[in-house]
Amino acid sequence: ADMAAGKAKATSVCAACHGQNGVAQIPTYPNLAGQNEQYLVMALKAYKNKQRTGGQAAIMQGQAAALSDEDIANVAAYFSSLPAGGK
Amino acid sequence: ADMAAGKAKATSVCAACHGQNGVAQIPTYPNLAGQNEQYLVMALKAYKNKQRTGGQAAIMQGQAAALSDEDIANVAAYFSSLPAGGK
């Protein structure tokens, strides 16, 4: 994965809801910092494929639709690399 | 939420995959320690309602089906209370 590209995408797109440090500012949104990379890839692909519905999934379906598989790999690697809890 | 009941359920049911400390031992599974409580409730209900599919969702559909709404509230509160990253 391209960590620099992941950081660029994460900070420009994902951070609005999931936090610059991967800690969400909104309690219904998940923290991503330190999350398992493979899980993040799987979750993003499930949103992109509209396999995840319910809750706030519609928002993530739209966001993930704009990500290529390469983008997904990159942002997953980036958020996984951040310290859990934002510390 | 009943934290003691949440801990009992979490350690007996959820921990096999998500870790006693909320840090998953399996890279395709998410860490839950320190995750936002409201997000965990929403995610568990989405699995229970079979709104989350794809990836490993079938496993969680089955697990969540066995949880009452009270169980969900309790385990969400418990995992959210654990330190992110398991530290």
Question: The CATH topology of chain A, please?
Answer: Cytochrome Bc1 Complex, Chain D, domain 2
Tell me the structural class of chain A: mainly alpha
Report the helical percentage of chain A: 55-70%
CATH class of chain A: Mainly Alpha
Number of domains of chain A: 1
Give the second-level CATH assignment, the architecture of chain A: Orthogonal Bundle
What percentage of amino acids of chain A are in beta strands?
under 5%
Q: Can you tell me the overall shape of chain A? A: globular
Strands of chain A, total number: 0
**If you compute it from the alpha carbons, what radius of gyration of chain A comes out, rounded to the nearest whole angstrom?**
12 Å
- Major sheet size, sense and barrel closure of chain A: none
Regions of chain A with pLDDT < 50 over 5+ consecutive residues?
A: none
Q: Count of helices of chain A?
A: 4
Biggest interface goes to: A-B, 30 and 30 residues
For the residues shown, what is the average pLDDT of chain A?
Answer: 96
Order of helices and strands of chain A: HHHH
The protein's oligomeric status is homodimer
Would you identify the CATH H-level superfamily of chain A?
A: Cytochrome c-like domain
